[in-house]
Amino acid sequence: MNIKLSALGLLLALSTPVLAADTATIKAEEPWARESPPTVTNGAAYMTLVNTGKEADRLVGASGEVSATVELHTHLMEGGVMKMRPIKAIEVNPGEPAVLKPGGLHIMLIGLKKPLVADQTFPLRLRFEKAGEIPVDVMVRKMGPGEGAEQPHHKDHKAQ
To answer: Which residues on neighbouring strands pair with residue 90, listed in sequence order?
Structure first.
């Protein structure tokens, strides 16, 4: 009798659907990258990070197969010259979206393994201090007139 009850309990446990709540507190909204000309070996990914939780979190890294190296970067004005620099983390506070955009915070893709082609996607994994890893699919957008020329600093990055 005891074995039958155990078997029945196991059968019920396995057949009951698990109701999983969406517990992720960080959302990556509209991840995108610019298409890259065939001769350009670096790119960048942009998005808005929204923290729906009650505690601050930090984006501490990213990874992907799209390039040899993936780094967090920002732009700084030094001596009247805009320069890009790697950073250790991006703060993502509740109620204060972190906007990654051209000319500001971004995810640098160094040593692209192949050109980024408009209307295609590529996967990245974002690594947060508290939320852990979050997968995102980055949509590649077509460059508008004059875009790309404004990003000459991307050509000088080398995989380390």
So the answer is: 59
